Amino acid sequence: MKFFIDTADVAEIKDLASTGLLDGVTTNPSLIAQSGRDFIEVITEICGIIDGPVSAEVAATDFDTMLKEGRHLAKIASNVVIKVPLTPDGLKTCKTLSDEGTMVNVTLCFSAAQAILAAKAGASFISPFIGRLDDLGQDGLMLISDIVEIYSQYPEFQTEVLVASIRNPNHIVEAAKMGADVSTIPPKVIRQLYNHPLTDQGLEAFVKDWAKTGQTILAA
Ligand code: G3P
Asked: CB-based contacts of 55: which residues, under 8 Å, 6+ apart?
């Protein structure tokens, strides 16, 4: 499973990129607003840090303007992925940009039917928002299971399942068991993945016991 980080915070991206575990970045208009920074400038900077796909979302909602915005954003770097909403105009934009060789991430997916449309429109990624479905009392992970199953029946669908709106480590583990291609993860949740109280307790005991031996591994 590939790990993307879901943030426009460049300091967080740099910090987590240093782990060597980061495969890409996703942003959205809300995350850009949170960063308080200029959109083009921040995407350019992120593309200089991460070699993998960096999603930048269009702001318009009509086909003509989305297409112009998408083409403009795609010029920033070869690893920019244009993010479009799952609407009729968004999918038209997806088809046109994909046919031109630009990677597209179709966002705001909440049903398997929508995911089929995105694959037919040539999307490189489909972003089902599982946390927002859970918030409504629905089962977000069930949607991932459905999409993975459907896509696996059609080798001509090249779209990767990018699990979005992740709220906790269990979302990632369960999506990985289902064979989802990518998780885009908030920085806080990536850090939670490392944690287990038995790891902390075990390490504390090993450190104490090692000190009792009076030995060092590296020669002075
Ligand atoms: O970037 C899209 C998605 O991950 C947003 O998540 O937490 O706003 O539902 P959230």
From this structure: 4, 24, 25, 26, 27, 28, 80, 81, 82, 83, 105, 107, 125
